[in-house]
Specification:
580 residues; alpha+beta; FAD/NAD(P)-binding domain; two-stranded antiparallel sheet; 15 helices
Length: 580
């Protein structure tokens, strides 16, 4: 162990009940402290990155802008978006192996009998508190310092640079964190943006990168749409009465053209039907019935399904996601979130929370909701043993996309389909190219419709290149970006999964440590040496071309593809026929 590593461990703080020991900041943030690696964001990617840094003998610190660590993995997203499980290796897989070990302890099964969870040596389905326990254990084992509730100063004063190198970052609490290499592991890409790195928000036109699934998708959107004719006006048939909340009257744009819109957010609710552990979701203060008029009309137009997707987790809990035409996503309120200041973001988060709590109360209680749906929703409430510091409500909104870096290499649909296979892989993705709806508009036929949902199987695992987490050299040469990495909207829809973020966190730190060891710039790092180290660390880098051949976009006419795949036929945005 080198001397820097010994000195680092002397000043390390350990988590205590999810909070830092109060003496930590004063003792650890000496003016002369220069960390090997400064990690901004205690998401899954950030935690894995820090653990890898300590394992490689590097001094590091995690600076987390919120009160909670673990991002979405501890924030309710317990139904892991896998794609192909065998594409997940390294420390990412190790996290899910630890979860399996966690559930092997019979004392953890409080509300149902112990059972095997997961396949082989992993558990892909888990409670938020289980993920938190595992992450805290990992941080404690590696004595990793983490500062919470310490947000980056937004704007040019938040990042100090000398030339194209970051020297330190500055937070609203007045702390300055100096480092040799920085890793942005936030969903929003705040450090990246404040460092002057190029990025994009919204959907690119298909023509930008030679794609077929990007841009506005009025014709292709076919899941999570409104299946019946729903009038958009407060007084049905009267445009002068105003438009219902949740619907906009703007031009939705031309198919396949780019726009500023991003896919909708929600909270991944943890719910339970165990009476002794259940907290009812009350009608929120300021509840406005008109907010849910679209929901009522959707039922009255023929919708019969419960509008949610409750994945079952251990101990009779759920990870509940958006589903069908009107559900937990409040479509269209988040366009300002990526570039918004903290006040704007908090306003969007509060609006989403208010809407989603009101939706749950409405589904359980309102007489215009079909009785069978009310009866089902009434069974569920918030678990009393989850999110105890936030009224049992998740404190991490699901940021499905925000800023996306325009780095040394931009991943596109063609990479996901393996029409293009980039060099220098640092991990693999494999999930469906998945975008939730981005807008709810008025069609030419005068009905309400959703737009933006795309769910297209990539055809197998694909490589994620090192250059996709590197900013352009002339913009910043000592920064790596994991969660806001360089990808088009539709490619990011596949990459944006928690296991992949962990993979990128590990690989980013491995690259950073090797660059420090060899006194090499990140952009000049020897890939053969990096590849050798990643493979030694059980990262999976290259897809099996025999099992997963490149998937070429279909040339069949759209309606023929719909007929074969049981998709609905849309005319001017309204469903005119479902194929049985």
């Amino acid at each position: 162990m080198n001397q820097n590593r010994r000195d680092f461990l002397k000043n390390t703080a350990i988590f205590s009940g999810g909070l830092l020991l109060p003496a930590y900041l004063k003792s650890c943030q000496a003016a002369e402290t220069v960390y090997d690696i400064v990690i901004y964001g205690a998401t899954s990617a950030g935690i894995i990155a820090a653990v890898k840094a300590t394992q490689m003998g590097r001094s590091c610190i995690i600076v987390e802008p919120s009160q909670r660590i673990g991002g979405l993995t501890t924030g309710g997203l317990g139904a892991t978006d896998l794609g192909i499980a065998d594409a997940i290796g390294g420390m990412s897989r190790g996290f899910y192996q630890r979860l399996r070990e966690y559930y092997m302890d019979e004392s953890k099964w409080k509300y149902e009998e112990p059972k095997i969870v997961g396949a082989n040596d992993t558990s892909w389905f888990f409670e938020p508190s289980a993920a938190m326990a595992v992450y805290q254990q990992m941080l404690e084992e590696n004595r990793i310092p983490v500062v919470i509730n310490d947000r980056l100063v937004l704007g040019s004063n938040g990042v100090n640079k000398r030339g194209n190198r970051i020297t330190s970052i500055v937070t609203e609490n007045g702390n300055e964190y100096k480092g040799k290499i920085f890793i942005d592991t936030t969903y929003e890409g705040d450090l990246m943006a404040m460092a002057g790195v190029s990025y994009h928000v919204g959907r690119e036109a298909n023509s930008v990168y030679g794609e077929t699934l990007n841009g506005v998708q009025k014709v292709r959107t076919h899941n999570h749409i409104i299946p019946g004719f729903v009038d958009p006006y407060i007084e049905p048939g009267n445009p002068r009465s105003g438009i219902l909340p949740g619907v906009h009257g703007d031009d939705p744009g031309k198919d396949f053209e780019g726009d500023h819109r991003i896919q909708a957010y929600c909270f991944r609710m943890s719910l339970t039907d165990v009476d002794e552990n259940k907290v009812p979701i009350e009608k929120p203060q300021g509840y406005d019935e008109l907010e849910y008029e679209l929901l009522f009309r959707n039922f009255e137009a023929g919708e019969t399904r419960v509008p949610w997707l409750p994945h079952m987790m251990p101990n009779r809990k759920t990870d509940t996601n958006n589903r069908w035409g009107v559900s937990t996503n409040k479509i269209g309120i988040n366009y300002e979130y990526p570039n918004g200041n903290y006040s704007i973001r908090q306003s969007i988060i509060a609006e989403q929370e208010h809407y989603q709590k009101g939706l749950m109360w409405t589904l359980a209680n309102h007489p215009r909701v079909p009785k069978n749906i009310r009866d089902e929703v009434k069974k569920w409430g918030l678990p009393a043993d989850e999110f105890t510091n936030n009224g049992h409500w998740p404190d991490q909104i699901y940021v499905r996309e925000a800023r996306r870096m325009i780095g040394e290499y931009v991943m596109t649909e063609n990479d996901c389909r393996r029409i293009t296979i980039a060099d220098q892989s640092i991990g693999m993705g494999s999930y469906t190219m998945d975008s939730h709806n981005v807008q709810r508009y008025i069609t030419r036929m005068g009905c309400v419709q959703n737009e933006g949902n795309i769910e297209v199987w990539a055809g197998g695992a694909y490589a994620i290149p090192y250059a996709s987490i590197l900013p352009k050299r002339n913009e910043c040469d000592n920064l790596l970006v994991t969660c806001a990495m360089s990808a088009s909207h539709i490619a990011y829809g596949s990459i944006r999964m928690e296991p992949v973020f962990m993979i990128l966190g590990q690989s980013a730190t491995t690259a950073a440590s090797m660059a420090l060891e060899t006194n090499t710039e990140l952009h000049d790092l020897s890939y053969p040496r990096l590849r050798e180290q990643l493979l030694a660390d059980q990262q999976f880098l290259f897809p099996d071309t025999e099992r997963f051949p490149p998937l070429v976009p279909s040339s069949e006419p759209l309606k023929e593809r719909q007929r074969l795949s049981n998709e609905p036929i849309l005319e001017n945005g309204c469903v005119v026929k479902y194929f049985d």
